[in-house]
Design brief:
The structure holds 2 protein chains of 2 kinds.
Chain A: H1 18-31, H2 34-48, H3 60-72, H4 75-107, H5 109-123, H6 127-138, H7 142-166, H8 170-178, H9 183-219, H10 226-235, H11 239-264
Chain B: E1 2-10, E2 16-25, H1 41-49, E3 56-61, E4 64-65, E5 73-76, H2 88-92, H3 101-114, H4 130-142, E6 148-151, H5 160-172
Parallel strand pairs in B: 5-6
Antiparallel strand pairs in B: 1-2, 1-3, 3-4
Helix pairs in contact in B: 3-4
Classes of the chains: A mainly alpha, B alpha+beta.
């Protein structure tokens, strides 16, 4: 019996489909804007129609005007710079400590047994519990704020690195052993690349917590920063300023997260992951 | 000469995988170890490769006791175990890090040609078929020129045609 089949010519992207595929490529990120922009527009219309006075929840146009005023006076740049500097310093601190200790605890069993129970106990402490202690130890100024943000970033990075190293495929590690890699070479050539996808996730979670902790840090006595802008808006009864600060937080948080995501793309091209193909339909 | 002297292996859960296995294997000899599933074939090869320590007995290669992976012994596992973050060429050159970049490139290039994968040099392992991936694993094990090459059923997961093709290919190499 013979079975003749004609292999259909199926190029990756037929010419007729190329423009629509390109359009889909542009439209996909815009899809994420649909919910916030749609909600903002809806609220704007509600206030414009007089269905709400928009006093406690100002419409987007009023928030935009507040942002413009803050930008014109130079205050916005000042507050953004202060907050960004704190987040970046705290993030750097947390990432370095989390990566080093996570790698040590993940690779050496003895270090894990020594270190991990204490770290896990410290992780259970609510972030605000550190505030009075940090103020006593490090003063009211920048150091205590950066330390608090660093604490927030440290735990997810530590846990992410340690967990990722522990879950590296034993068979892959065995390839390194078969080629007689030394400890540092094993870490550099096998473990680090293997944990990279999980590490990127840990960094993103850590950064997200860094943005949360900066608010707590700035609420504990700051004269500049977006957290200060929030507190100032609450004390002076300016909901538009509070919402403006929240919007800036959201934009900065999303932008910095996106930067990590973009930076990791060339390093993770090798992944054969579900998400690479856009996930489920 | 590879000498296996009364090798025994008992796992921590009490399972006796090997008991007093002995053999003398000369240079150039091809030896097949045949047995049912779970009879200890992989355990024996892992002990010879220095990946697992035998509970008793010794493995010696040219009078050198083997208790850890050795440069003269290469192993090809049941699965290709390619490193997914390295290209095909980098996977093949993985064990050649002590060579200069130029020599390594030439060696890898020759190995790629020998396994018929020159056009896949820059491909990721995820882009290979099962047979192609196993050919890369073979090339990776062969480029350091080991004196002993251990094959732990590397073709068992492949279809009959690919298996026959790779067996012939390996004999040619």
């Amino acid at each position: 019996m013979t079975l003749d089949t004609v292999a259909a010519s199926k190029p990756d992207m037929p010419m007729s489909e190329a423009p629509s595929a390109r359009l889909r490529g542009y439209a996909r990120p815009l899809l994420g804007l649909l919910l916030p922009v749609g909600s903002a527009l809806a609220w704007e219309i509600v206030v414009w129609l007089g269905l709400s006075n928009g006093r406690l929840v100002p419409p987007p146009s009023r928030i935009f005007v507040t942002l413009l005023e803050l930008a014109r006076s130079g205050e916005l740049t000042l507050h953004i710079t202060a907050t960004l500097t704190r987040v970046m310093a705290g993030f750097g601190l947390g990432v370095v400590a989390g990566t080093v200790l996570g790698a040590i605890a993940g690779y050496w069993g003895l270090a894990r047994r020594l270190l991990d129970p204490t770290v896990q106990a410290l992780r259970a402490i609510p972030s605000l519990a550190w505030v009075p202690l940090f103020i006593l130890w490090l003063g009211i100024f920048e150091t205590s704020k950066i330390a608090l943000i660093g604490i927030g970033v440290f735990f997810p990075v530590y846990l992410g690195v340690m967990g990722a190293i522990l879950s590296v495929d034993r068979k892959i590690v065995e390839v390194g052993r078969a080629f007689r890699l030394s400890g540092p070479a094993m870490i550099r050539r096998i473990l680090l690349p293997a944990v990279l996808p999980a590490y990127v996730v840990a960094l993103r979670v850590g950064l997200g917590l860094g943005w949360m902790f900066v608010v707590a840090a700035e609420l504990m006595g700051a004269s500049e920063g977006l957290g200060y802008l929030l507190l100032d808006g609450q004390q002076l009864g300016k909901p538009a300023q509070i919402l403006a600060a929240i919007v800036v937080f959201a934009i900065l948080g999303k932008t910095t997260d996106w930067l990590i995501e973009i930076a990791s793309v060339p390093l993770l091209r090798w992944q054969d992951a579900f998400g690479r193909r856009g996930g489920a339909v | 000469m590879l000498v296996l002297d009364a090798i025994g292996k008992t796992y921590p859960n009490g399972v006796h995988a090997l008991e007093r296995f002995s053999a003398d294997i000369n240079l150039g000899e091809i030896v097949a170890i045949i047995g049912g599933s779970g009879c200890g074939k992989s355990t024996l090869l892992r002990a010879i490769a220095g990946l697992d320590r035998a509970t008793s007995g010794t493995v010696t290669l040219d009078d050198i006791a083997i208790s850890a992976p050795h440069e003269k012994i290469g192993i090809i596992f049941q699965e290709p175990r390619l490193l997914p973050w390295l290209s095909v060429a980098d996977n093949i050159g993985f064990g050649l890090s002590e060579l200069t970049a130029d020599v390594r490139r030439q060696t890898v290039s020759r190995a790629l040609a020998r396994v018929g994968l020159t056009d896949k040099a820059q491909a990721w392992p995820r882009e290979l078929s099962g047979g192609q991936a196993q050919r890369v694993a073979i090339a990776r094990a062969l480029v350091p020129q080991p004196e002993v090459l251990l094959l732990d059923e590397p073709f068992s997961a492949l279809d009959a045609f690919t298996r026959r093709d790779l067996q012939d290919h390996l004999l040619d190499l």
